[in-house]
Amino acid sequence: MAIYLLGAEKGGCGKTTTAVHLAAALAARSRDVLLLDTDTSGDAAGWIAQRRERPQLSAVQCMRDYGQVAATIRDAAQRYQDVVVDAGGRDSVELRSAMTVANVLVMPTCPSQFDLWQVSRVAALIEQARAFNPTLQAFAIVNRASTNWTSAEAREAGELIAEFPQLQLARTVLHDRKSYRDAVRDGRAVFELEQSSARKAADEVWSLVAELLGENVRQVEETNAAVLC
């Protein structure tokens, strides 16, 4: 059982896209997964609504809750193998409450200065949360990076994040790819798309899953191929 919290102190960093892909990846491995949407925008729940129209896809259950969500998360963790919590992109009651019970916090951030300014604020929240939840792991993911191989933005963002010991910088970098937008629109994950152009995005997702689960990338790729064949 694991509780994954997707949270950030700023919107627009790809938090919900990352949350639904993590939930879909766990479900594709025959895990019993709950996606808990605590963001008032309801985007994660909207993705679920689209997904339910495609019964051939692996099932992801969904709930919505707001305010002090820690009790809801604890209860869900007794009934599901994995709980993925999508918190709003701000310092909210929901984010702080979820941080007290989560096993893993995942903070996506775009490689722009406006987004990177949130890192210090999230690091401070992690310090506070660990007073109540000392085993909380925290990962920062560079998201929506340029696909231009000459761009140094992702590397520079990683160097800034590495200055904060509260956060572990993920080796995986998620890039700004149309495949993510195509998949989310249809209630899918990128590894569920048939287009060959989605392969690079799918590889990124499975690489991230490997890091979060403490597995090697090859093991996760082989599992992915087995469950989707």
Walkthrough of the structure:
This protein has a single domain (2-228), classed as P-loop containing nucleotide triphosphate hydrolases (Rossmann fold). The chain is built from ten helices and seven strands. The chain has helices at residues 15-28, 43-51, 70-79, 93-99, 113-116, 118-129, 153-161, 178-185, 199-213, 217-228, and strands spanning 2-8, 33-37, 61-64, 82-89, 104-109, 137-142, 168-169. Strands 3-2-4-1-5-6-7 form a seven-stranded parallel β-sheet, sandwiched between helices. Helix 9 (199-213) crosses helix 10 (217-228).
Quick summary of this structure?
With 229 residues, the chain is α/β, with parallel strands linked by helices. It has helices at 15-28, 43-51, 70-79, 93-99, 113-116, 118-129, 153-161, 178-185, 199-213, 217-228; strands at 2-8, 33-37, 61-64, 82-89, 104-109, 137-142, 168-169. It has 10 helices and 7 strands.
